[in-house]
Amino acid sequence: MLRILALGDVISPATVGFLSRRLWSYRREMEVDFTVVNGENAGFLSGIGSKDAALLLSGGADCITGGNHTMASRSIYPTLDSSDRVLRPINLADGVPGAGYTILPARDRRILVFSALGCLFMEAGTPDPVPYIERVLLREAGRFDVSILDLHAEATGEKLAAAHRLDGKVSAIFGTHTHVPTADEAILPHGTGYISDVGFCGRTGGILGVKTEVMTERQRTRLRYSYSEAEGPFRAQGVLFDLDETSGKTLAVSRVSFGE
Ligand SMILES: [Fe+2]
User: Fold this and answer.
1) How far is the CA of 176 from the centre of ligand 1 (A)?
2) What residues in the chain have per-residue pLDDT under 50?
3) Centroid of ligand 1 to alpha carbon of 71 (angstroms)
4) What is the structure's pLDDT at 46?
5) Where exactly are the structural domains of the chain?
6) pTM (2 decimals)?
7) Was domain 2-204+232-259 assigned CATH 3.60.21.10?
8) Closest by alpha carbon to 166, among 101, 228, 244, 249?
9) Secondary structure letter of residue 126 according to DSSP
């Protein structure tokens, strides 16, 4: 059995610091074999910097997945091109820096990790990610034991429909982007572990990790306010998938969270 921890959107450099202090001990406690972290917002809601990516990797993440903000900062492009542990979404245009999947070792097994972007209420013109994933599964057949997909999207229905199309093909699928965890963790009929959204990693007490007054004034006035971080204690939200490394199917899925 392989135990994979998938964590939701890391929303700031301060949160990267929190994870680098706590993640290794949590991994040991929960006997985690491999950790995937969505890092698209690690530069505080505006992409991820190479320093934050390096800190997350040394702090206990095995792979960093992306989203609609990954390409926001050009400083990450060389890292996307050179590291097999930092991904951008797979369904971006040809020629965009980086890759949308990778195959990494965990114990004596090989884990195929995908990062993909949803289409609804996201970047206009984003193509359906499912055919991109299916093509890779065919191309890499025999080169991996289990697979996991971070589906970064706004709409739960879109994520669930994509998951059913990939049921039995991908070992586990977790949603990110909304920063709000859902309570629909399940094993789909053909063995794929699933949750629509795992939530986020950051300071609690605000709205989606941002200071409450900033978000309420933005909504009330419709004016632009610069974001500032919430001030509560740190919390990491995610999910644990127990995978059968022989069949590639999910045996158990459970929501988890830890703080400081
Ligand atoms: Fe996002």
Assistant:
1) 7
2) none
3) 11
4) 78
5) 2-204+232-259
6) 0.97
7) yes
8) 249
9) P
